[in-house]
Write a structure and sequence with these properties.
It is built from 11 helices and 5 strands. The protein has a 5-stranded mixed beta sheet, with helices on one face. A hairpin with a 6-residue loop joins strand 4 and strand 5. Helix 1 packs across helix 11. The longest helix has 21 residues. The radius of gyration is 20 Å and the shape is globular.
Length: 229
């Protein structure tokens, strides 16, 4: 079974599972959305916002792009921000980067002539790397430089978002947070809290401190087993 077909089968199982656990779930979902968080994340397939935060459909208003970059000249990004703040009236905006980011890596390596659109996209990252070249050059390994630049980039996006008139002039301005996700441990680290007086770099509570029961097989898994995959 190819991947698209498997996705359709998984969808049947997921829909059945959700309806069984909450008969009103889809009817409620159809009535409209009222998310309290705008999530600005990376397009990387390994960092799905809802999965890593255990959120449900309707919880997050999501915008993803290469390297989770914010640009006030990008109408796609600005329309998302405007709608989230002015119409949905979200309480929080979260910029979430991740360690080992391919877009950040590309900004520290020679540009590829085969990727002109990517080159333009990550130009602000290249400029940020030059601005922090002293700190980055002092870091021993490329992987560590990539991870540090990923952190610096999240902080830069937070600053830029807070400086927009959409956020700054809102009747009830949302809190803007900067987070970063670890691919090696699945943990999120807070780089900048929505409260500007909070300390930066404070990690969230350890997932190791919470006992998580082993999940039962999902309805989708049961459908797949019945079809013999």
């Amino acid at each position: 079974m190819n991947r698209p077909k498997r996705m359709l089968v998984e969808n049947v199982g997921w829909a059945a599972e959700m309806a069984a656990s909450d008969p009103d779930f889809f009817e409620t979902l159809a009535q409209g959305q009222s998310p309290t968080v705008l999530w600005i994340g990376c397009s990387d397939s390994r960092v799905p916002a809802e999965t890593i935060t255990h959120s449900k459909p309707g919880d997050l208003f999501v915008h993803r792009n290469i390297a989770n970059l914010f640009s006030p000249t990008d109408d796609n990004m600005m329309s998302v921000l405007e709608y989230a703040v002015s119409v949905l009236k979200v309480d929080d905006v979260i910029v979430c980067g991740h360690y080992g980011c391919g877009g950040v890596r590309a900004s520290l390596l020679p540009m590829s002539d085969a990727l002109p659109h990517v080159n333009r996209r990550i130009a602000p990252l290249c400029a940020l790397a030059r601005a922090h070249s002293g700190e980055l050059d002092a870091i021993g390994t490329l992987d560590s430089r990539i991870d540090r630049l990923a952190e610096l980039s999240v902080l830069e996006q937070v600053r830029a978002l807070r400086d927009t008139s959409i956020v700054r002039d809102a009747k009830r301005a949302p809190r803007v947070h900067g987070w970063i996700f670890g691919l090696r441990d699945g943990r999120i680290k807070v780089l900048s809290s929505g409260d500007s007086t909070d300390a930066e770099g404070e990690p969230l509570a350890s997932s190791n401190d919470v006992a998580v029961p082993a999940p039962a097989p999902s309805a989708a898994q049961r459908v797949m087993e019945a079809l013999g995959r």
